[in-house]
Automatic annotation (TrEMBL):
Protein name in the entry: Transcription regulator ArsR
SMART domains in the record: HTH_ARSR (SM00418)
Protein keywords: DNA-binding, Transcription, Transcription regulation
Family matches, as Pfam families: HTH_20
SUPFAM superfamilies assigned to the protein according to its UniProt record, in alphabetical order: Winged helix' DNA-binding domain
Molecular functions per Gene Ontology: DNA binding; DNA-binding transcription factor activity
Domain HTH arsR-type: 13-107
Domain of life: Bacteria
Transmembrane segments: none
């Protein structure tokens, strides 16, 4: 992956050049991970992990965030005791122009079609 964590609070992230399409598509293929990304995109800013009310255990939530981070979809940083999550939109748009917007648009249309979510 990328640079090793400097201390126990630094989380490893792939460098932009290391982000792969198949990893991004895998990360976004899960409905809960897509939900996280949709919320981050809608807010356009960083959100703490505790902001997300997911219907799974804390360990499963941690797993979903790790998959998103390790695929290069989100950036996670500690600020005090909070772990903040931000969408790596600039990196994803630079590598795969239009992909994120197309996926988010399709997800919104599907949510409307299925009656929410």
């Amino acid at each position: 992956m990328t640079s090793a964590a400097v201390n126990s609070r630094d989380l490893p992230h792939p460098a932009r050049a290391e982000i792969r399409l198949e990893g991004v598509l895998h990360a976004l293929s899960d409905p809960l991970r897509l939900r996280i990304v949709r919320e981050l995109a809608a807010v356009g800013d960083e959100l703490s992990c505790s902001h997300f009310d997911l219907p799974v255990t804390k360990s499963t939530t941690t797993h979903h965030f790790r998959v998103l981070r390790e695929s290069g979809v989100i950036q996670q940083n500690y600020r005090g005791t909070a772990k903040l999550n931000g969408l790596r939109k600039d990196d994803l748009d630079g590598l795969f122009p239009g992909l994120l917007d197309a996926l988010l648009g399709a997800a919104a249309r599907e949510a409307d079609r299925l009656g929410g979510a």
